[in-house]
Amino acid sequence: MSEKFDLVVIGGGSGGVRAARVSAQLGAKVAIVEEYRYGGTCVIRGCVPKKLFVYASRFGDLFDVAPSFGWTVDASFDWPTLLANKDKEIDRLERIYETLLDGSGVTIFKARAKVTGPNAVELSTGEQLEAERILIATGGAPFKPDIEGSDLGITSNEAFHLQSLPRTILIEGGGYIAVEFATIFAGLGVDTTLVYRRDRILRGFDHDVRDGLEDALRERGVRFRYGYHISKLRKDGEGVCVSFSHGEEATFDAVMFATGRHPNTGDLGLDTAGVQLDQTGAVVVDEYSRSSVPSIYAVGDVTGRAALTPVAIREGAAFAQTVYNNTPTTVPYHLIPTAVFSEPEIGTVGMSEEDAAERYRSIDVYLTRFRPMMNTLSDRQEKMMLKLITETDTGRILGCHILGPGAGEMIQLVAIPLGMGGTMADFNHTIAVHPTAAEELVTFKSPSYRVVDGEKCNP
């Protein structure tokens, strides 16, 4: 006998949990199935533990400037203490997720699920679930390249559980995960090298952000190797010998692959149900998250649209509103604010200067760099950057990019006026909060330069 539900959600991460809770609150009979731990990648082995590690890595900078404020600091770092406290926090958050689901009336299953038809799900426990609709929210997973010795490398999953901190580490990649873990390890005293097959980190970000972060990481001791990649790994005593694509070899205590993530669609039975996948294995969906099978939907990283936790949450809520509240709801993918928890931190929303210059004949760029106030009593010279990009004719803000302390917090608030079509006049009309770094966003007097037909010129 199979148990019947209006909705069966496969995946207990941020997107799946939000979809399950909202759908149940709207009157649907909902089940959710998770094979590992509720909370998903973000809570269990992603954003949350990563930011806790970032916090830990920042204390070194604070200790460096503390003497300029009159403090004498004698500090040491203990990796096992950080791991133990991180695990306690993750356990607490996991319990909260399950409590919220239970409080919303969602039936919770802890098992692996497989789709056996457009309206049928089989669990690894042998239970059979019948569903009017199925929602795939299984997220993504880091992967290792298909090279000899790849098993000797780690991914972000294993980085959260290392028994000891390595003395040296090589990180392959140039995106969010690579630069964030480079920040973490370097900040904790690990000799850190980043190798990337392209010529610069953070592809797709504004060029001033990319250059500024690289310079700051170099100042923190991170080394960059561009234009090649890892071709082979082999054991070398207690370390790992890396063979690079250009022929060089070097040995590190640890090697980390941070070259992207793949959708978790393997062995889910989606092919049997007729669900269309793209070349990466992501579920192909329409603007309302419906797959090629009318009764099967998908949200979050498994769709390959935008691999960010808040996007998955918004997709989950939009699905519930569309299906169970008769309110067709889409997600504004064109305006996604995001933060990179590197050191210094990045906050960005809207278009980069390069993208804006391609789409608009004339843009104005407002740019400022200055030492954060925290550093002014010391000899630390690292600068903060704030950048606004506007359409020349209308003054509409097209993009905002911040590099420095609190960038993630600031960009969340900047995203609101951008979503409302805010203009430079609106920013200039706003009274500044002094002394803050954010006040620079509302005190620009004139553009730093203009870009017309792709050419930089005076405004």
Automatic annotation (TrEMBL):
Catalytic activity entry: 2 glutathione + NADP(+) = glutathione disulfide + NADPH + H(+)
Domain FAD/NAD(P)-binding: 5-316
EC number: 1.8.1.7
Keyword NADP carried by entry: yes
Cofactor dependence: FAD
Domain Pyridine nucleotide-disulphide oxidoreductase dimerisation: from-to ranges: 336-443
GO molecular function list: glutathione-disulfide reductase (NADPH) activity
Keywords: Disulfide bond, FAD, Flavoprotein, NADP, Oxidoreductase, Redox-active center
Record function comment: Catalyzes the reduction of glutathione disulfide (GSSG) to reduced glutathione (GSH).
Oligomeric and partner information: Homodimer.
Assigned protein family: Belongs to the class-I pyridine nucleotide-disulfide oxidoreductase family.
Protein name: Glutathione reductase
Source organism of the structure: Pelagibacterium flavum
Gene name, Swiss-Prot/TrEMBL: gor
